[in-house]
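Students often ask what a 'structure token' actually looks like in practice. Rather than answer in the abstract, let us consider SARP family transcriptional regulator, a protein of 957 residues. Its sequence is given first.
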Amino acid sequence: MRFGVLGAVEVWSADGETVAVGGPRSRALLAILLLNAGRTVAVRPLVEGLYGPGAPSGAAHALQSQVSRLRRRLGAAGETGDRLQFGPAGYLLLADPDDVDVHRCERLAGEGRRSLAAGDHEGAARLLGEALELWRGPALADVIDAPFAGEQAARLEELRLAVLQDLVEARLARGEHHDLAAELPEIVAAHPLRERLRGQLMRALYGSGRKAEALLVFEDARRTLAEELGVDPSPELGDVHLAMLRAGPAPAEAVGGGVPAQFTTFVGRDGDLERVRALLGERRLVTLTGPGGVGKTRLAVEAAGREQDEVRFVDLAALADGAAVPQALINALGLREAGLVPSLSGPLDPVERLIAGLAERRVLLVLDNCEHVVAEVAALTRRLLAACRDLRILVTSRERLGITGETLHPVPPLPLDGGGHPAARLFADRAAAVRPGFLVSDANADAVARICRALDGLPLAIELAAARLRSLTLEEVEARLDDRFRLLSRGDRSAAPRHRTLRSVVGWSWDLLSRPEQALAARLTVFSGGASLHAAARVCGPSEGEAVELLADLVDKSLVEAGGGRYRMLETVHAYCAERLADDGEREQVRAAHAAYFLDLAQAAEPCLRGPDQLEWLARLDAERGNFHAALHWAAAADPTLGLRLLAALSWQGQLRGLPGERTAVAAGLLVTIGDEPPAGLEEEYTLCVAHAAAADNAHDQLLRDRLERLADQPLRYPFLRVLRFMMNGPRVDEETPADPWSRAFTSMESGVKGLFGGDRDTAEPALRAALAGFREIGDRWGVLTVLKQLAGLADETESTALMAEAIDLAGRLGAVEDLTRLLVRNADRLTDAGRLLPAQAEYERAVDFARRTGTPETQAGALRGLADLARLRGELPAARDLYDRALRGCGRASMGAALTRYRILFGLGRVAEAERDADQARSCYRQALAIARAYGDLPSTAASADALAAVDARGR
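Now compare that with the structural description of the same chain:
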């Protein structure tokens, strides 16, 4: 078991799971004991630490209760012994100091300080780095209000700063001036009175060739100390300042040179590498763009490393000012005044020096990490390429330069599909480095694929996740991806700060955005699955014209992806920007606008889904499936009335796409919130909500029937309600002729089906053909499909084959997988009746395959019933019984279609029982089948089951 106070107070079990230790007072008690782990703490200090010096008289008894609860919680985590012991002197928490983060930090800090004093800078950096990694936030963060916590938190913060300063000292000794010059300004700003940090920043800047900036740090320190404390800088800081004044020019900043050597294998970019090399053979300016962590730098290094010309690599990440770009290139190229032709008007400016130094050289210049100085790089690149004909430039940036002659190569995330895909190969390669022998196998391939998919195929994120296998299992890594920024927080210590953690990678891009760009990026996170331009403008606030420009900027800066008229974010970017939206306090307001927009869209689409533009509108709604899902879930909790309207407006789309079950949880939540009575004017919407809830809970069936009966005499606005009434209660024809064409066609279909059920073919066929003509005229493919299925049962074999073929084609074009499955079963039934068992078997198997895709057991039940029929006809009785049983388990009860499937399953089981000479079983099956047939008024089925039951009874006599 491990314990932590360097952040929130936490306990982790041996398998890495978080252990619940109770409320604030229990955590405060545990914190005091952890700070004194291995030492007995008397009762009085514990009481005062929890309740203060003026503790109430019953505090000692309350302490005993807190100790008992804490002991039980620690015991529930699987501990075999009693860690929390009581003796005459007080309470003792038994814990190895290395299992408590604060004591481990203190040990590592002491060892690191001793290594530093001994000149072992590598060892010191490693030990001190490990000590700092133990910090998860401000010490005692969740118990800071406890009486004991303030003083202890201040002491621990001093410990952290001391470790940090020692680590900086070790890194300076290792020559990491360049990185520290980028990191330390933010730390110094947070602790402006820490003179040791000021001196370290000055040394880092001086060692990076930035003497003037180093001297400015001293002047700022002098001013701040005088204003805040009324004192002068210490002698130690003054000595650093004096040494710099005497030392002369600072050494040149080492930001460039040849291609950097790499320490890991290059995985999954062969196609990109080939294209970039081809572009470099044809073009003089190539820019690799893409989001942070996608692998632009690595791809540039690999491409440059295969060049025959001279290559100079310049990392611009640490530059704080675009004006320093020319000098950074001069340093990387090794240019000096003495080697250049002097200008008659005086010294050459930096750009002229670059032109003079590059004019006669065949060089590939790689400019890495340009996004924060893109304007200056663009201007310099234009001048250099115009003046130096043998110069080629390869740029990496999250944003294009935007100049004439630039060729872009967007670097995509690693592919995620296919066996052994590049993302999985990268994960396996990096995982093997921390867990030797790790391989992607059949046992873990799905988990690896899910991790890579959740991380968008971003190489940096995948590498960080793989590195966590050093201390976590694959399953634990996957389970923690919901908090990806915390999980992926341990990167390469030697990397630039903005590349060490996933949060810093995205945060760098965020900080480069303007305020309007940040606002739009944050608000876009309410969308799920992307947004159209119109939706983004309506929901996120700017006018459509402004949105066009801001979205273009976000695409250029690799925060947003564009394609197919939609704008999307990678999940990692989405998660970061969503945090910013929550911080701004706008989330609920933007979610409300999002839900209102998609309600308007659903209501506009609803009548169009029954006309000639049906397919186009279905495709449009399909593209917004994630947004509808998000809007429904938000509305169910925050605005139930809007939720009812949205659920109802989407009901016909759900019917066509087979989605009612997907919306079950939302409907159930709405019913709990709203209660037993519908809001005024929303009776139909409430009934539809009950219907969706009934998709998973048959207890709602009677409630739904009652509500449908209540609406039976009213003109129904929602076609889905008419279909529900038809499916649950059988055909019921309104006395009055409906006014709209769709309702007239549907009424004709109901009349025809009523005739079919009553055995009245003369009534059924004309009504169905009238319905078919009506649906064809208005262009409703669903209606045509539904009627074709009914007419196929009345037609001769030739016409039936044609009707079924048209129905199957329509189902495919509609994308109605559930309907397609049922049609395949119907077609297979027809082939079975004709004695064509082999083609029937193939159709049933296709139906089972499609049914699996729908995820609806009821749909699969019909196909399994068909396979069972074939097995029974072949005399394979055990196989038939098994298939019938599987079908029966998956068959629902709520709809007429499900009831008829159940009827056929029971009838088939009766036949199997007869063949096995089990009269009682046969009789039971036939009786159940007969009850279903009578309940739905199906005369042929009623007669068939009654005859079968009579035959069994006759043989029994």
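One point worth highlighting: DSSP finds 45 helices and 14 strands in the chain. Ask yourself how you might have guessed this from the sequence alone, and why that guess would often be unreliable.
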